[in-house]
Amino acid sequence: MVKLPAFLLILSATISAADYKAGMARVIITPEKPMYLSGYANRTHPSEGKIHDLWAKSLAIEDRKGGRVVILSTDLVGLPRGITDVVAARALKEYNLDRARLTINSSHTHTGPLIRGNLNIMFELDAEQKERVDAYSRELIEKLVAVIGASITDLAPANLSFGNGIVKFAMNRRQNTAASVKIGVNPKGPSDYDVPVLKVSAPDGKLRAVLFGYACHNTTLTGEFYQFSGDYAGFAQIAIEQANPGATALFMMLCGADQNPNPRSTLELARRHGTDLATEVNRVLGSRLQPVRGAILAAFQTVDLEFAIHTRETFESRLKETNVFRVRNAKAMLATYEQGRPIRRYSYPVQAIGFGKDLTLMALGGEVVVDYALRIKKEYGSKGIIVAGYSNDVMSYIPSLRVLKEGGYEAADAMTYYGLPGPYNEEVEDRIIRTVGQVMKRVKRSPAK
Q1: How many CA atoms lie within 13 A of 223 on its CB side?
Q2: CA distance readout (Å), 139 to 31, 46, 230, 259
Q3: Buried b (16+ CB within 10 A) or exposed e, 357-373
Q4: What does each C-alpha distance from 68 to 88, 96, 201, 355, 411 come to in angstroms?
Q5: What is the pLDDT of residues 362-378, one digit of tens each?
């Protein structure tokens, strides 16, 4: 029998005690040429440089039996299915990564580039700008596939732990008036101030990565800003990494479709909100966290969301309106009628990833209002759960039944910019929550008692 030196015995014991393997990778996705920024329809020209770089960051996690997941965060307004499906198919072919085990989240920064297939009705681009959008989207796919592979290659023993913080700069923006619901400030409206924090540490305790989220639009920087940036989420990631040299910080956008930063509209406020979020994440990292252990389970399912009834006449009547965006949308919808395939429904993605009994990541597609997160946490418990929106496909706003009945931008008006007939019918919330229950069951997360 070979006798090992004491320090090797200690090292061996430490490594064997790791519950998972984890790997991280990142790639800059800042456009190299001026491009239109997405998110605000009032912008009139392409970008003017950058405040800081945009990133795609990948976190791969593998359990003791080889069960693997990858969480991909991007400093982008939203990735449509036309991109995420291609990336997922490549990841399956090149890395044997099943679709259920890849989550692609967009931070929803409004100072990121226009993406092919997402909010394209906002702008009428010239030929040069159209080609830049197409070229950027093609290059983006390659970078996302590569960064996924790089994170898998980086897999090394790691331990996970989880905790929560609170930050309160999010403000419900659905302001009720006598005439309608407008985008404003509604301090009495529902919000979710939770800051979930997943800590990824090496066996020696050194921080390797932190995944954190917040339910608030990345819209501190409003339409008059023309420089690329990740908004408050970008500043938060930078601050966390500066405070923890060598660690990778990944931001996930949660269910903040009806939440805006408050106050907003200056660069200093974007930095301040980012700093406040980073400070809270660092506080949580230094606190006593709940260990995360167990096998990784994953489920991915789609459900058809039906649109409210519409006819050809619905859109023909809009052609003489003065709102240029509604006219563009009407022309696009009439084209689907001419082709014999009017849009009646949308295939919506719902994903769950479970880490034993300690943590569940619920990833919903689209711009999800806060009601969904609050309901899911109420039904499944608020402990050990992350409820993200803007994941795997950003195709539209996803209103709750309450929001749908109240009307306003998140319920119907935003559909104009997404190129959909909208609004959804009143089954939208029930269909999504029913599908949430189905994927939760598959990752063995039971409703709270």
Answers
A1: 8
A2: 10, 19, 19, 31
A3: ebbbbbbbbbbbbbbbb
A4: 14, 10, 17, 11, 37
A5: 999 999 999 999 999 99
Q: What angle is formed at CA 151 by the lines to CA 217 and CA 215, rounded to 5 degrees? A: 15
Cβ atoms 394, 383 nearer than 8 A: no
User: Whose CA is closest to 368, among 257, 220, 226, 249?
Assistant: 257
C-alpha to C-alpha distance for 429 and 303, rounded to whole angstroms? 11
Element (H, E) at 166: strand 156-166
Q: What is the pLDDT of residues 65-121, one digit of tens each?
A: 999 999 999 999 999 999 999 999 999 999 999 999 999 999 999 999 999 999 989
DSSP character for 99? G
Contact 417/395 with Cβ under 8 angstroms?
no
The whole model's pTM is what? Answer: 0.95
* Residues 6 or more apart whose Cβ sits within 8 Å of residue 46: 34, 35, 36, 37, 129, 226
SS3 for 314-334 is: HHHCCCCCCCHHHHHHHHHHH
342: preceding bond cis by omega (within 30 degrees): no
Burial of 308 (0-12, 13-18, 19+ CB in 10 A): middle
Using only the alpha carbons of the chain, give its radius of gyration.
22
Contact 393, 420 (CB under 8 A): no
Interatomic CA distance for residues 151 and 398, integer angstroms: 31
Identify the sign of the CA torsion 388, 208, 79, 172.
positive
3-state secondary structure of 35: coil
Find how far residue 43's CA is from the centre of its chain: 23
| C-alpha closest to that of 367 among 310, 413, 301, 323 | 413
